[in-house]
Amino acid sequence: MFSKEEAKALRLEFWNRFKAISEQERRKRGFKKTWMLKQTGVKGLSLRFDVDREHVAVGFEIYFKNKFKEALLMESFEGIRHLLEAELEGPLVWDDAYVTEEERECARIYVQMKDVDIFQKADWEKMWSFMMKNMFIMEQFFVDYREFIENYENL
After folding, report:
1. CB neighbourhood size of 11 (10 A)
2. Contact partners, residue 31, CB within 8 Å, separation at least 6
3. Using CA atoms, how far apart are residues 141 and 144, in angstroms rounded to an integer?
4. 70 pLDDT above the threshold of 70
5. Model's pTM, two decimal places?
6. pLDDT tens digits for range 82-133
7. What single DSSP character describes residue 6?
8. CA 81 centroid distance within chain
9. Rounded distance between C-alpha atoms, residue 146 and residue 153, angstroms
10. Rounded CA gap, 123 and 115, in Å?
11. Residue 103 falls in which region: left (phi positive, over 0), alpha (psi -120 to 50) or beta
12. How many Å apart are CA 11 and CA 154, to the nearest integer?
């Protein structure tokens, strides 16, 4: 068991080391040094990393106060689901009622690796590898299908 300070320090170390490793890998591949994440340019849509004591996940988060718009954007992704699933190793999780740590309900489409723990340094390498591999795929998928995705209101 860790104290709050120890847990915070471990999380900070995990993310700082991941940032350094991923910036280096992105530069090698000719990308900007930072991940797209919230800068998708599509209102209500962001790319997310989620790491805790039980799993690591990479995916899309959809949030609108207007739940009808959220459902429309999810439907847009449903239309190209098979294309995204073909790119990824694991099955996609579709959760239209995900509750964040801030207790905000949103929709998420993600791939995950279970049985890893952010507080176990021995897990970090495989977590980082999973995160980078899948975020590269999801970013490229978004770029390739952006026009289709951002026209969700016209479907």
Report:
1. 15
2. none
3. 5
4. yes
5. 0.91
6. 999 999 877 899 999 999 888 989 999 999 999 999 999 999 999 999 999 9
7. H
8. 16
9. 13
10. 9
11. left
12. 41
Q: How confident is the model at residue 154 (pLDDT cuts 50, 70, 90)?
A: low
Tell me the domain boundaries of the chain.
Answer: 4-154
How many C-beta atoms surround the C-beta of residue 2 within 10 A? Answer: 11
Tokens of 121: 């340094």
Q: Look at the block and give the residue holding tokens 């590898």.
A: 129
Give pLDDT, residue 153.
64
Average pLDDT over residues 55-69: 93
Instruction: Give residue-wise pLDDT tens across range 119-152.
Output: 999 999 999 999 999 999 999 999 999 998 888 7
Helix (H) / strand (E) containing 91? none
Q: What pLDDT is attached to residue 100?
A: 85
Q: Which residue has tokens 């970013």?
A: 139
